[in-house]
Amino acid sequence: MTHPEIKKQIVSDIAEAVSQGAALYKCCDVIGIHPRTYHRWCRVTADRRKGSKRTNKRSLSDAEKDQIVEACCSKRFQDKNPYEIVAILLEEGIYIASPWTYYRVLKERGLLVHRGNSRAPRKPYTPPELKATGPDQVYAWDITWIPSMVNGLFWYVYSVEDIWTREIVGWTIYNEESADHAIALFNSIKTRRNLKGTWIHSDNGNPMRGATLAVMLANLGMFLSHSRPLVKNDNAYIESFFKTLKYHAAYPCRFNSMEDARRWVADFIDWYNTEHRHSGIGYVTPQQRRQCKVEALFRKRNATLLDAFQRTPERFPKAGPKLWREKKTVYLNPSEDTRKLLCKKAA
Predict the structure, then answer these.
(1) Rounded to the nearest 5 degrees, what angle is found at the Cα of 138, between the Cα atoms of 238 and 276?
(2) I need a labelling partner for 209 at 20 to 30 A (CA). Which of 77, 86, 200, 261 fits?
(3) Are 165 and 293 in contact, with CB atoms under 8 Å apart?
(4) Is the four-CA dihedral 15, 17, 21, 27 of positive or negative sign?
(5) Whole-angstrom Cα Rg for the chain
(6) Per-residue exposure over 82-98, b if at least 16 CB sit within 10 Å of its own CB, e if not
(7) Is 65 helix (H, G, I), strand (E, B) or coil?
């Protein structure tokens, strides 16, 4: 491709020859170009090669960019955004550029930051990714209310769940939400379970954020984790348990007294831990999961499936039945990379 400077020189020489009476086509023939090429070079002399430096007629000069930076960083405008600055300057008969150009220039100069006393934006909190490969590694706990016979009077159910087994490892009921009641609950769990190194996840309620509870759990060797404000999905396992509790067919909806509530919840949790087959752990009970009976149960299921496949293969896919496999690892609030990896394995 001919360099733009050479094009300019050729166009200039041909124009001079034509002005002195030479024929255009003969001049082009001598140089080795077509007359149409000459006319095109007359219209466009910029370098159109890939990677060449382009110029934009609308681009601001360095002086104009300096003027934008000076205006934005001045004491008068240091607390205002570019839209406000442009509006005020327009009222004064001054126009430099559009607000988006202000933003672009500030970004180029590394000044797209707080220039005054405005509060810096807070980085969104992300709960840590918690991974459990066995029991007593990650707990989730929360408080829910159940109504009494009196409108506006509730009892509060404190529940702690092991996310790996889905077992309710501790619970209690009181007529109020209090960090002291939570401390008593975890002290009772401590007598039955080894809590050293266990993660405990909760939401941001006052009992969960209490300093006394935090110190007590830290003394037990536990690590604390909290959900994002108003995001129920960050504590999904315990919220799922509360739904199972309140949507159960035997749920009475209202309770005569706290003692009645405790009796019913005690029976429900015993059923939940020992009889309820949980979909998240392969339709086995939390007790079976804790007692490491899942692999033996899955072997029996798979043997039955394979036997049925041998007898009636036409009722199954060509590759055979989908076998049961135990989910060895459970995540709470997995990261984006972990989600992609889990989806890839599932596929």
Answers:
(1) 45
(2) 261
(3) no
(4) negative
(5) 37
(6) beebbeeeeeeeeebbe
(7) helix
Write the pLDDT tens digit of every residue in 43-69: 765 555 666 666 666 788 889 899 999
Question: Within 10 A of 183 (CB to CB), how many other CB atoms are there?
Answer: 17
- Candidates 301, 328, 306; CA nearest to 319 is 306
Burial class of 203 by CB neighbour count within 10 A (0 to 12, 13 to 18, 19+): buried
Place of tokens 């090429």: 37
Geometric angle at alpha carbon 180, from 179 and 181, rounded to 5° = 90
| φ and ψ at residue 141, rounded to 5 degrees | -140, 155
What gap in Å lies between CA 329 and CA 306, rounded to an integer? 26
DSSP letters for 113-134: S--SSSPPPPPPP-PPPEEESS
Decide: pTM greater than 0.85.
no
**pLDDT beneath 50, residues of the chain:** none
